[in-house]
Amino acid sequence: MAQAQATRGSGDPMKAQQEQPEPIQYGHVFAVTGDLAVQAIAPRDAEAMRTAEESVQGVQVPQASGGGFSAAVAMETAATYNQAVGAVRPGQASDAATKQGITVTQTAVPGGRIVTEFVAGQVVGQYSVADQAMMQQQQVEEDTSKVTIGEAMEAAALSAGDRPLEEADAAAIRAAETQAQGADEVMPGGLADQAWAAASANAWAERDEDKITVSDVLSVRSLREMHRLPSFLSYK
User: Which residues belong to any copy of the SMP domain (predicted)?
Assistant: First the structure.
């Protein structure tokens, strides 16, 4: 009597193995098309982009200035993953990058430059860089604006003389302080807070001679502090 023979599994042993993860391709990260889109991002590609970015004199890539990620950062991350899963070898470069190159260009525009990053002739990154001279000029204009606000308040103090400070005066001082600081909130304990406290106290004072005047709050010393804006002083 014939014995039944044990049958072997009909499945392919290769299918039992874990499938290799799909590599990160250029099309997964950047808005590119054609052959470049389906090529895995390789270590040499990322190195070439980093070198190209650093060759643009005086230009900080976005992540260095708090504005996001440059193409090199994205490519380095993708290449590290691809190498870890065995999709690319250390030191490997993609065909597109090898044949058509990786470049970074800059184009002058009013007020700065536009930096554009290319892989195989396709754009993988673009951002603007403000001209340093213009940025310095804007800073000077901002500083001048702060001083002008202080000077205007000093003139107001001189013209108001010994008039008791009212809520309208406190509101004007608050508006000037927020504009000088470039913020919506006033500085706690600052000149605006002092003005509101003075206006509240004056509302309860029975005699004018007991009331706090505009010139009391807008003293020369407090106005000088407002020019510097680190802190504000108490009344005289």
Answer: 24-84, 147-205
